[in-house]
Prior knowledge:
This protein is an alpha/beta fold.
Amino acid sequence: xxxxxxxxxxxxxxxxxxxxxxxxxxxxxxxxxxxxxxxxxxxxxxxxxxxxxxxxxxxxxxxxxxxxxxxxxxxxxxxxxxxxxxxxxxxxxxxxxxxxxxxxxxxxxxxxxxxxxxxxxxxxxxxxxxxxxxxxxxxxxxxxxxxxxxxxxxxxxxxxxxxxxxxxxxxxxxxxxxxxxxxxxxxxxxxxxxxxxxxxxxxxxxxxxxxxxxxxxxxxxxxxxxxxxxxxxxxxxxxxxxxxxxxxxxxxxxxxxxxxxxxxxxxxxxxxxxxxxxxxxxxxxxxxxxxxxxxxxxxxxxxxxxxxxxxxxxxxxxxxxxxxxxxxxxxxxxxxxxxxxxxxxxxxxxxxxxxxxxxxxxxxxxxxxxxxxxxxxxxxxxxxxxxxxxxxxxxxxxxxxxxxxxxxxxxxxxxxxxxxxxxx
Length: 424
Ligand code: KE4
């Protein structure tokens, strides 16, 4: 029995499912999860000494690759000055100024410790600002695990085939309305059925939790228009797309301005960080300034801020960064598509920037229902084939591939070569 198997047996005795986040359990691909010992650049290494080219990148944060020297140096320096004070620090000001400088729609921002916390808090701020209770989300989108958002959710819930969660009282979700991604009529119908009751629409501007599903032309612009017509707020959940598609995220890439934005992942550089921010008049509702309460012991933690500031500063200071990363990624995904086509494997490959996913279906995947036509058995075969070739992709059909600046042309060529041997 290898070390991963041994650790998994031990873990299952003391941690639910042996993991601290469900998707890590490799349940949907029927394999023992790899226990990782270290990572560097585009590579991760498991406890049995196996090396992989990593396309998870901690589910998005590692856009520079693992262990970037400027990030590590910043963390080391900050840690030597103390791990946490529970008091205001200069680094929090620098981080907030950076985000407000880079993302034009953000005039004020609050740091929290995860994407879930960022979304939960943004929803509360939207309800507090508008005085309305209902929220519209989209089937297949995932916004973390706060009660009100565990409705028709993507990511791990979709992987496990459970649209909701036990332990969430009907009272917590009765104000959550579900629309169809890329279907503006489904949104309009909800507003017509709930006149003057909808506080906000929350959307992943590029859905990445039902696999990657792109917004069709006019979809995001349509949401902006519908929100303006109904005096509701538009919340972009950019926990994945923020600082991923472009320096100013999906809102810059698609040129649509939300009222509030949530972040996570990349802004923490690998440390636990989330944030929500937007128009000043909305954010001024948040305590201690306003009546919307939200707090956190480790919010704005100095070591986490140091990691985030270092990563965002690298992204900001290299104007070519996104042009190069997105061009490299486009070439890779297009070549992957050609290889699968040449092998006669029916599939839908959706990608934008350094984000992409392959669905084993003959349909064009444009929403939750079409994503569910994917043959998860074929995905399991694909996953097993790739990991045995040393390619580490998400152990779920309904997650994304993340390409980083650390992925070399050789890494990508090796990955394409592995796909060339795929039989599904
Ligand atoms: P966290 O609470 O996991 O930091 O963020 C929640 C969240 C919010 N919004 C979006 C768009 C997200 O994708 C996420 C979390 N993403 C998943 C990956 N699909 C995290 C991985 C996991 O659950 O282990």
